[in-house]
Amino acid sequence: MTTIIYHNPKCGTSRNTLALIRNAGIEPEIIEYLKTPPTKDELKDLIAATGKPVRDIMRQKEAQYTELQLDDAKWSDDALIDLILEHPILLNRPIVVTTLGTRLCRPSEEVLDILPAPQQGAFTKEDGERVIDENGQRI
Q1: Are residues 60 and 99 in the same domain?
Q2: Residue 131 Rama label (left phi>0; alpha psi -120 to 50; beta)
Q3: Mind listing the pLDDT tens digit for each residue in 16-51?
Q4: Helix, strand or coil for residue 132?
Q5: Interval 101-119 mean pLDDT
């Protein structure tokens, strides 16, 4: 199975997660979900695979979340999924799929728990935080 990342290249967490995947020697399938959103069935399956409620995979700090009053309990999961499809920016990122599981990788280090290969060297996040030492071990 291919490793897949639902990615937004403008997001630092998404870029760090992609870099950690590559630091394990894996070249993932990159889905820029803002350009190529998943279908409704794909999104439902993706959310179910994370094991999280729909609201937990939504960007609650996104302006549209507030504008549409999506924190209101009146919204069903199905309605929220439809809104994510209509406004893909509402999908939190990055979501990574591997043979070991599917995870919303916030913070980016979450990806380490589902990578099928170890880190191959040191890794420092864009903000300067060291995550992996020179021996490929988590700091």
Answers
A1: no
A2: alpha
A3: 999 999 999 999 999 999 999 999 999 999 999 999
A4: strand
A5: 97
User: What's the residue count for the chain?
Assistant: 139
What pLDDT score does 1 carry?
A: 73
Q: How many domains does the chain have?
A: 2
Mean pLDDT of 61-74: 95
Predicted structure pTM score: 0.95
Which CATH number belongs to the domain containing residue 79 in this structure?
A: 3.40.30.10
Contact present, 58 and 64 (Cβ < 8 Å): no
46 close to 19: Cβ distance less than 8 angstroms: no
Q: 88 and 62 in one domain?
A: yes
Which of the residues are catalytic? 11
* Contact predicate 3/28, CB 8 Å: yes
List the domain range (segments joined by +) for residue 61.
39-92
75 lies in the same domain as 100:
no
Query: Measuring CA to CA, which residue among 107, 114, 95 is closest to residue 131?
Result: 107
C-alpha 119, offset from chain centre: 19
